[in-house]
Every structure is written in C-alpha cells, then in structure tokens.
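Example record for the data management plan.
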Amino acid sequence: MDAYTLTLEDIATYPINYDLIYRHLNIDDDIATADEELIEEYVKQAFDAFERATECAIVQRTATIVYTVAPSDNSFRLPFGPVASITSVNGEDYTDISNTRFERIGTLEHVYLPSYTLPLTIVYEVGYATLPHDIHGAIWWDVCGRYEERGPDGKNTNAFDKVVKYDRIVNRHRRGRGLL
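Corresponding structural encoding:
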C-alpha cells in the first residue's frame, strides 16, 4: 500500500464555456449576473466531482507527492495523471532526476528509482492541455443539472458521481480507484 500525501495546485481558470451554459438554461444577462456566483460554484463542484471519481486531473497544473513508505518494487505510482512531465525527484540525499525511469502502465504512470531515501518528494505536471470534448460535455451537463435542480437556497443534490448517464465517460477516464 502506498503511503503518501498528495497536493494539487488549485485550478486557476476553469475551461468551460459559460455562454453555452447560460444559453442552454435560457438565462438572460440580468439573471446571469445574479446567478454568476452560483453557476461558478456548480462548475467547481462538477470539476471536483469528476476528478475525484476518475483520479484524473482534467486541467493542467502542478502535483506534489511525498512518499513516506517505499513500495516493494521501487515503483512509485503517480496519482492524478495524465502526467505531462516530471519536474523534480528529491529525497534526503537524492536529487538526480537523470536516473529516474518513467513508465505508463495502462492508464497509470509510475516512476522507478534505483535507489532513494525517504521521505521522497516528486513534483510533476498533470492534466490535459486541451479538455477532451466528452469531459467538457459531461461537465457542462452536470453544471446545467445542478442549476436546474437547485433548491431555494441554491443547494442541490445532483452530484456528478450519482448521475448514471455519465458512467461511460467517467469509466473511460478513470485512472485508479477514484477518491469517492
């Protein structure tokens, strides 16, 4: 079992077309201004739910993982791919990234190290350069569903991971067990 802590950089800009959401929901400019914060919160919720369900970073950003227990085969799994690049690998006395072997096994990425000391910190870039169309569509429909099913207080129960029609998209992009 991997023992690590993972930190993902926050998403600075969500790559979603807000105008399409407003048009689909028949929201005019006056209402769009009033509900802008609510829809932005639904976008954040939808992205977070998708990433937790798939263990897939869908927006490019930096991930930092600190391993405190070594895997038996020197294969350190990198959660929340797809991995674009490895920025650094640092142990107590190990900083040589040239000896690092990076390998993709199925949908999961691993770093193999011949020797290292713990704790071991790996910094890497994750996420899609361009959001795949199926993910964009799933997020878009999820945001619209959250808005349409909101209560008077703006809260909703339309969590992405409970919407059956997105299972195919989630399963297509699932990288691990998910974090649900």
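Summary line stored alongside the record: The longest helix spans residues 29-54.
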